[in-house]
Structures are given as C-alpha cells and as structure tokens.
From TrEMBL:
Its main location: cytoplasm. This is 5'-nucleotidase SurE. It comes from the Bacteria. One of its GO terms (cellular component) is cytoplasm. It is found in: Cytoplasm.
Length: 261
C-alpha cells in the first residue's frame, strides 16, 4: 500500500511522527509512506487553498516534502506533482495535537486535508488526539493514537462501502484524552456541538500602542450530545465519524419548497 500523509501542525510536529509510524504499520514491508506537509503550522485554516499565489515546495528527503501552504494545498501538490507518477492508495491527515470533535471540525486544517483527498477521489482519514487532564502530562500525550491508530484505520477500511457518490466519504477519528490502556473501545459517532462553546477573541495592546486580538477557543471538557463525537471521547472512547463535503441541509428541502416559483 502507498500512503500519503499530511497534517496542519507542520512538518516538524510530533503528531506527524506518530502518523508516520501508523502509516508504516499499515503500508507493510512492501509499501511506501509519503509525507507532504505544511512547512509551518496551519492550524485553523479548514479547507483553505492558496490559488492566488504560488506555493513553494521543498524536498526534505526521500518521499518527504514541505510546502508553504495549507493541508489541502499539500494534498493537491502531492497528487498532481510530487506523487503524480505513483499515486496514493490512502491519504491520512494528522495526528492533530488536540481534538477535532464537534464544532472544531469546521475550523480544522486536519479535516481540510482529508476532505480535499476525498474530493480528489481518494480514501481519506483524519486523526486527532484529544487533550485533557488525564493525558496532557504523559511522556507521550499521543499514546492513545499511537497505540490504537493502525487498528482503527484497518477497521474503517474493512467496513467502508464501495460507492459512486458525487461527494465521497471521508472519516474523522478522534482519540480520547486518556492513556492508551484506558481507551474503552471505538464508537461510531455523529458530529456533536458543545453547548455554549464558541471561538472568541482576547484584545491585547502591544508596547508600541498597536492593538491586536488573540483568537481563543472554548472549554473542551464540555459534554456534547449523547452519542456524538465529543461526548464519546470524554467517556473514553475513540470516535469515528463518516463525513462528506456536501453541506446541503437535505432535511430542509421539502420544508422550504415554498421558496420555489
């Protein structure tokens, strides 16, 4: 198996090392692991692509490239340039430092990389490691992802249906904020919403007198709806959420049909 990996924390991020180990396990002794990742951190860029200016790509080693762009840019660069003569069988994005459950999904560059791979027609899985009091101080905070990552992806690939949909499936996987031994299992979960949790800003006045704002996230320990990704994560389970890039609210098509003329 030939696997492409990317992330949004950057090519030097420790989570990328974890993902490389997972991918190496999956690829097997006769497989290949390719890395095309952002040269600098790209957290929060979602599905951004840089089509108004060129993106510089640097070869860091065999099958390893850094690109001055977003995770979605990296997937495009891999498929249409770096790997154009040896296309991937699977695209993995992550392992992200911090969860991409619930509302975080919408902002995530990790998700954006997997989404772009799906739009290009490739099987794709995004992996993120939830942080919390039980794992933040571990020697390896990515312990749960490192231990269980390959097995989860194998289960997804074995269960994923063959389909010919306009918008292909991709998968969002979040590992709970616990040590590897305390992971209770895997749960298929919906995308949740943490009540009252939104991004905000913290104003700051620099010594020069200029005004700045820091973007701040909300409390990640707030419980979401029963059976949703953030909820099962906080209960100690790995969440697997099937996704598509189609943003249509299909359930509203009949309700709003009176708009038609």
């Amino acid at each position: 198996m030939r696997i492409l990996i990317t992330n949004d924390d950057g090519i030097t991020a420790p989570g990328l090392e974890v993902m490389e180990a997972i991918a190496t396990d999956l690829a097997g002794p006769d497989g290949e692991v390719w890395v095309v990742a952002p040269a600098f951190e790209q957290s929060g860029v979602a599905h951004c692509i840089n089509y108004v200016h060129p993106t510089m790509m640097s070869e860091m080693g065999p099958r390893r490239f850094a690109a001055e762009g977003s995770p979605a840019d990296c997937v495009l660069i891999a498929i249409h340039d770096a790997m154009k003569d040896c296309l991937p069988d699977l695209v993995l994005s992550g392992v992200n430092r911090g969860n991409n459950s619930a509302e975080n999904t919408l902002y995530s560059g990790t998700i954006g990389g997997a989404m772009e791979a799906a739009l290009q027609g490739y099987p794709a899985v995004a992996l993120s490691q939830y942080y919390g009091p039980a794992n933040r101080e571990l020697v390896n905070p990515f312990e749960a992802a490192a231990t269980h990552g390959a097995d989860v992806i194998r289960r997804i690939l074995d269960a994923s249906p063959t389909e010919n949909a306009e918008y292909s499936l991709f998968y969002n996987v979040n590992f709970p904020p616990v040590s590897a031994v305390d992971v209770k299992g895997i749960r298929l979960a919906t995308q949740g919403r943490r009540p009252g949790v939104v991004f905000g800003t913290e104003p700051h006045i620099a010594p020069s007198g200029r005004r700045f704002s820091w973007i701040k996230g909300g409390d990640q320990q707030v419980m979401a709806g029963t059976g949703s990704d953030a909820a099962v994560n906080l209960e100690g389970y790995i969440s697997v959420t099937p996704m598509r890039a189609d943003l249509t609210a299909h359930e509203m098509m009949d309700t709003l049909s009176g708009i038609n003329s």
